[in-house]
Design a protein that fits this description.
The protein has 212 residues and is an alpha+beta fold. It is built from 4 helices and 18 strands. The protein has a 5-stranded antiparallel sheet with strand order 5-2-1-6-9. A hairpin with a 2-residue loop joins strand 12 and strand 13. The radius of gyration is 21 Å and the shape is globular. The chain starts with 10 loop residues before the first helix and ends with a strand.
Length: 212
């Protein structure tokens, strides 16, 4: 943000109109800016689930091949392998071919012997004791394409460059994720809706709840 330069020529006006912020205000502003910046580090994009299989060593896990619109030397790259614990909540035939929302810069991790290269974002319903009772996929607007970027008005835009890989020790995803929620079926970050160039990101099966 540019400072208003019209008062620079008048030092008296400048000293009256622009009091120094208190230490408390400065700390609060720095904290707010730091919190807001976490979302800019995440690479959240549209993916298309090209195939789904059950993990051979874990019946609660799916192994999905997800097209996230990546290219190499002008040619489409092969889909990413993503492992998700959705077997109990999302039927295989619903998931296969579905447009989903992917965190694409998670550090690859091995889940029961299979390297997972991302995370599907889902909304949840929970009991009072925290037990998850229902899970619903976040889905982009119709006609969204693999690789379409998810942005948040006031925080990120099409030009925002996420970090290549989220550093687990810095907990950038966790610090942003606590501000994710679904309200009236629309996904939000701190009151700003998840959106692509095609429109809002929604959950068709859950109207309110956290996102993970």
């Amino acid at each position: 943000m540019l400072l208003n330069q019209s008062s620079v020529a008048n030092p008296i006006l400048n000293s009256v109109a622009s009091p120094q912020p208190s230490t408390k205000d400065t700390v609060a502003n720095n904290t707010e800016q730091s919190e807001e910046d976490h979302i800019s580090k995440l690479d959240i994009r549209v993916g298309i689930v090209r195939s789904v299989s059950t993990h051979p060593d874990a019946e609660s896990l799916y192994i999905e091949q997800v097209d996230v619109g990546e290219e190499e030397d002008g040619q489409p790259k092969k889909p990413r392998t993503i492992v998700s614990g959705l077997v109990r909540y999302v039927p295989k035939d619903y998931l296969e071919g579905r447009a989903v929302i992917v965190v694409g810069n998670m550090k690859p991790s091995k889940l029961r012997g299979v390297i997972s290269e991302g995370m599907l974002l889902c909304a949840m319903e929970k009991e009072v004791d925290g037990q998850v009772t229902k899970v619903g996929l976040l889905e982009p607007a119709e006609r969204s394409k693999p690789g379409d970027k998810v942005t948040f008005e006031g925080y990120t835009d099409e030009g925002t460059a996420p970090v290549p890989v989220l550093t687990p020790k810095r907990k950038w995803f966790e610090k942003a994720q606590v501000h994710f929620s679904v309200k009236d079926g629309v996904a939000y970050y701190k009151g700003s809706p998840f959106r692509t160039v095609r429109g809002f990101v929604r959950c068709k099966s859950i109207s309110e709840g956290p996102i993970s």
